[in-house]
Structure formats: C-alpha cells, structure tokens
Amino acid sequence: MGSPRPVLITATLTAALAGALLAPLPGAVAAPAEDRPQPHPVREGSREAPTAAARAPLSATAGALTDETRDLTREGGYPRRTELEAPPENPADKSIKLGLAPYHSLAPRLNALQALGDRVSVEVAGRSAGGHELYLVTVTAPETAAQARDQERMRERIENAPAAAAEDRHIKTRYKTPVFINNNIHGNEWEGTDAALKLIEELAKAKDAKTADLLAKNRVYLNVTANPDGRIAGTRANAGGFDLNRDFITATQPETRAIRQIAIDKQPAVMLDLHGYVNGTLIEPTTPPHGENYEYDLFLKNSYANALGMEAAVNGLGYTAEKDGVRPAVIPFRDQEEGWDDWPPIFTPQYMPFQGAVASHTIEFPMVVNNNAYNTLPVEELRRRAAINTDIAGAAMRATLDYTHTHRASVLADQIETFRRGAAGEPQRPVSEESVPGVPGIGPEDVYTAKFPRAYVVPAGSSQRSATAAARLVDHLVANDVRVERAVTAFRLAGRTYPAGSYIVDMRQPKRGIANVILAAGRDISADVGTMYDISGWSLGLLWGADVDAAASGELRVRTRTVHAAAPTGYVAPRGDLRLRLDDPKELAALNSLLKQGVEVRRAGDGSAIVPGSARSRAAVLADRLGVAFHATREKGTTALERTRVAAAVTAGELFALRDMGFDVVPVSTAVLNAGFDWSTADVLYVSSGLDHAKLTPAARAAFEASGVGVVGLGEQGAAFNEAASLLEVTAVAGNGDANGVVRVRNAGGPITGGAPAHTFVYSPMWFTGAGAGVRVDQSYATGNPLVSGHWRATEKGTGGPGDAAGQAAVVSGTSSAGTPVALFGTEPMFRAHPKGVFAQIGRALLAR
C-alpha cells in the first residue's frame, strides 16, 4: 500500500473543490458564494431560475442534428492557408466586458497570425450548433506535402501496427509528437482562448533555437474556442443548451463531434482542456475513482509529471493570495481524497486517452468572472481577474509544451504501448508505486482495471427494434474509430451460435478502451467512494436498444468484412396494412412524419402504430431514411393517432430528444404560462424542469385546468406538478439525490413500456407508492439491487438507496378525476439525450393523451 495521500477535503469537500471565495484585496470584490462551481451531481437545468424554459431554439437544435465535421487529414503540407471570413461585429459579445477577444475578432486575428510566417495554419473544423465556425490552429515547422504524408503514414502505423512502430527508428527520430489544447468548451470560461492566441503569436514570432527545435519535433493543435455560441452569449452551454463537456460518448452536438474528429485525425499524445474557476488553480490528474478502461499506469506517469511542471509554472508567475487573491495550485491526485474523479468518459480529457493521449488534463484557472460575478463586479476588477486567468492558462500551456518536448521519446513510446497492449489483448497493469515510480501516495483506492472480453457480438436476426438500434450503435462505434467486423458466415463463440450478418467487435484492437467504454455494462462503484463529480454509469450496450453479447473468451474463427457503416435495416412489407413498432426513437420519428403528411394512423393495443397500406410509398421513404421496418398486419388498431403538439418544460437534452423523435415542441416555463400561454397550440404538457405549479398565477392555473391537455411528468418537478394540480393519485418518493446510473427494470408492456428494454437510466431516482384506483404501474425497479452500474447508496439516514427502490413503481399512468391522461416517470429516459433505447417510453406516453 502506498503512503497516505494528504487529506485536504472531507466535510468541506464542496468548498474546497469550488474554492471560489478570494482573499480580501484592497479595492477588490470577492465573488459571491453562489458563483462557485458545484462538484456534486445537480440535475441538468436545475440551476436555472425556476421560471426558465429550456434554452434551445429549434434552429439551433436542427443545426446540431447536421454533422458538419470536416476531414482534417487532407493532402498538402504546412502551412495551410485559410482566409477566414470575419463575421459581423457584435458589440453584445460577453467577452468584451472582460477585456478579452470577442468571437468576431478571432478570424481577423488568425488571418494576421497566418501572415506572420510559415508556422501557423488555420482550418475550419466544423460549425457550432448556432452556426459559428470552429477554428483549429496548427503551429509547427513547415512541411512539404511529402513530409506531411510521411507524418500521416507514421501516425497510422503507431495506431494500426504499434508493435512494429515501437521498433521503427524513422518514427522515433522523425515523428512530430501531437499536442492538443482545447479552449473555452464552457462558453463562460473564456480565458483559454486568449491565452491560446498569445501562445500562437509567440510561437510564430520566436527566433530562438529552442522554439525552432520544439516546432521541428512537435505539432501543436489549438481549438481556439470550442464553444463560440457560449462565448458570445456568456453561457456555459452552446446554442442548443448543451454542456459540451458532458457530451462525449453520446456526441449529440456538432462541436463535440468536431473535437472527436480532431482526436481521431491528429491522435494527440498530450492534451489540455482549459476551464474555470477553482482557486487555487486545479490541475488534473484526479482523485479516485479512475476510469477502469485506461492504461492508467502509462497515463498517471505522464499526467502527474506534467502536472508538477504546470504547477511550478503557475506558482512561478508570482501571484499570491495576499496580494492578488490567487491561491497556490492544487493537484487533486496528490492533495485531495475524492470528489474530482476521472471515472466517466463524458469529459474531454477523460475521452482523449481512448484516442491515444497519455497525459490529458482539465485546468481550472482561479479567478471567478462568470455568472453573478460578471453582473456585479466592477469592470476593472473583472478585467484584472481575466488577465490573471489568461496568464495562468498560458503558463499551463507553455509548461505542457516543455514537458512534451523534453520527454518526447517516452511520451511517444507510451502512446505506442497503449495501442500495442490493446492490439495484443494484454491485461492492464495495475498502478502501484512500483509500476508508476515517482508518483507518491498510490494505494489500493487508485486501482481500477477492466477485464476485457474476447469480443462483443451484436447478433443479427434479433427483433426489428434491435436491428434499428444495432445499426445506430455500430455507426456510433465506427464514428469513435472502433474497429467493427461483420460475419460473412455463421459462427460459434463462447458456446453460442451466431448467424451471418452479426457484427463483431474484436477486443484485440488498439482502441479497445473506447470499445469497452461504449459496450460494457459498467460497474457499481457505490461502495468505493462517497461522492462523485458527475454521472457514474452510461452503458450504450444496455441503453441504446441493441442486443449486445460479451464473449468472455474463445477464438474468432469466422470470415468477416470490415464495417465502415452499418447495413441498411429499413423494410416495408409488399402487401397489406403495416405495423410500425414504436420501440425506438427512429420509429417515433417515422410516425410523426407520417402524421405530419396527413396519413391516417391508428394505435394498436400494445402501443404500436397501424399504417394503412395506401401509405406504402411514404413508408418506403422513411424506411430508407430512418432504417425502420413496416411489417404486414391484419390488425386495424383501436384509436386514431394525431399529430401531438407538446408544451415542454424540460431540460435541453430532453428538448433535443423530443425534436429528434419528430414532435412539435414549444418550450414553456412558469414565466411563459404566467404571461398567458395559448393552450390551443398544445395537446400535452411535459414537465421535468422550469415549471413550478405553486408559482403560477390564478389565471395561469385556470387556463391550464380548462385546457384539458394530457400531462407527462418526470422527476421531482414532474411529481410536484402532479401533486399540486391534483392529477394522479400517487405518492412520489425521492431516492438519494446524488444517485445515478443504469438500472434493471420490469416492464408491464402496454402503451408506454411495450417493447421497452430491461434497463433504463436514473438520476436522482424516484418511485411511486400509494397508487389510487385506476393507476397503472407501467414499469417497476427490479427486485434485489436494481443498480447495474453507477453510484447509488442510501442517504446518511439510511433511506433512499436501491434497496428501498427495489420492486417499486418507476413509471405510472392513469386518468385524473377530470379525465386528463397522466404519466409519471421516476427514471430519466432522455437524460442529456443519451439513453436512446428508452427515449420511446416518453414518446409513447406523449401519444397516449
């Protein structure tokens, strides 16, 4: 066991992690406590005022559904000149008040930096949800087209033939080590962008031999602003309302997909992600639990050593708590017990190791300038703080370049070794003071390893729901650079027989870590740590609707072909009326498209849709576009389905998912209803966030009651609305508010949960008791311990744990005394637009109005 790590946080965990109250300064104003970032799970959207509607205009969400990620491996050498078109000047850009670079100034500045010499290149990596260009800058010594092709050949060899690459002298001497610096992914954490601009200019102008050698042996990639929408608006989220630094693995947003493509194309060995605001400056690596799918011994070795260099550089700037309000830098791995973990792969630095980074860090600069501080502090104080943050961000960047350059050989060797272990199928090496010398305080609490299966199989010939979902999952795997094969013939593996056409993910591959992240069930870590920074479970294998088998052992003896895209899954029966199962969000999208076209569709008793044979040609278009199946049926259905217009008081992720399923959605809130909402424009009200019945005016309450619209409620606010409006006779019971993860459920079938998977997602889980007459239990938590993966323990009072939830009603429905159809969810079927396989439960509930 390693020496004990210093305990800097226990009961004061939140304050220490947030670290935002500055030491008093003459003439300076301390940031209010509410400005401090909170480390514990907080329901997405709950920080907004209770009257706020989800902030995701339809145009922005539509933009997010269109992937404009660019191919960044094009032919040609460096520099690559791109004359950027400057957007119109925007005096409302929130950066201006801080004395920082507004978005509209970036294109002219980058054009000027390209003109300084032959070291700076700019490419457009994509567009944001709000339509703003994403600028990727490369700083390196000039390369001919042939030299650039040689670099790309070496990069591919490192990934695809790592054992040979480890012995390749040409790679050792000629390959330029890639460093990636990601800035401003949270729009109101601005200063990384400005530090990046300064660094680019310094590198472009420098005449010294050290800089020349640095750029001859390394490529420096800088995403100047990862979130231009938020930078302009002064918001954490993008124009779609998404926290982009929670979107990796799901990758709903174009900004996230652009960063993912940079990671795949450039394969950075070292990366930084610049954030604010934690005082003193927080420099990862993190506290436990550590992501179990990393080659953590290689990662910790480099991340800790680089953190020490950044710490020295930041502290060496000379800022002090007494003089400037700046506390010394903090390295959580060394200085804290828990609460700032790298368990979920949803953050940029936690995603990057799966694409080859052997050191990746979140850097949190110290001086709060956003939220309430932005609105209350004097401009001079804000600019003083922003200047300090910019200096600190720059120091971290320069220290990282120094580390990478100085340790280039070992950094590159460790990246190659990461890929080699995956390709060879070797077990991970647990961290210890022996396996990672020079890192103090390593103990058993730091050891998290995965036992990788021999392969994953997505079987062919399963249900149509699974086929549609399998295609989505396979395409997502490929987009993350996971190697997927498709069986040409039937085969046996681990005692099971699979038909031809089944998809195979051989886990002897360089990027096995990301494959396992996506497909594995995950792990229950409730007993391992007391608190988590964010979510703890996310399995796409269980939550995206596909059937996925993990074969623990066995040899793959099967002819396969490499998959670049999933095989088509659309089907339309040649004769008769058609049944469309509504088990998948794409099937809901198909239904809503048909209804929008005026097709007369009826609902069957099991919740599926009966489409008349006369709409076969329209069904064929949708089958081709969405990959859904319309099977022949003799059933005529019971009730007519109509286009459902949804008034939605929801989070941005839920709003995105609703529109992804094709619903007409109007965001509402307490304020919107109090202003006089026209209920004739809505058929159903969906409540999960931003709507407080108790704060509605008498006129707004009366208007809702007279509307007769159905209600779907989710979580605490949905249950509170149900109770205040006296709709469904049930008692909502709240579990531990910090709990989250993948859970097992039992589905009763019928209109809401017919065809639903046996797993769903929870965040601050709830359940329902005391059901009155006519209340139907549509879904229950499984008996025993329903948690499969994540973090869910009882509260300090011993209540609210998974044992209390076991067997209880998770989803209920019925009709109010006034005849209003109501459905209530204690689960999170559309959390951050992630658990796609269970979206349809909400969609079906909305249709049952």
UniProtKB/TrEMBL annotation:
SMART domains referenced in this protein's UniProt entry, alphabetically: Zn_pept
Signal sequence interval, chain numbering: 1-30
Cofactor: Zn(2+)
Comp. bias intervals (Basic and acidic residues): 33-47, 67-84
Pfam families associated with the record: Peptidase_M14
Boundaries of every Peptidase M14 domain copy: 99-400
TM segment ranges: none
GO molecular function: carboxypeptidase activity
Positions of region (Disordered): 30-96
Keywords: Carboxypeptidase, Hydrolase, Metalloprotease, Protease, Signal, Zinc
Compositionally biased residues, Low complexity: 48-65
The keyword Zinc belongs to this UniProt entry's keyword annotation: yes
Annotated active site: 364 (proton donor/acceptor)
Family: Belongs to the peptidase M14 family.
Protein name: M14 family zinc carboxypeptidase
Natural source organism: Streptomyces kurssanovii
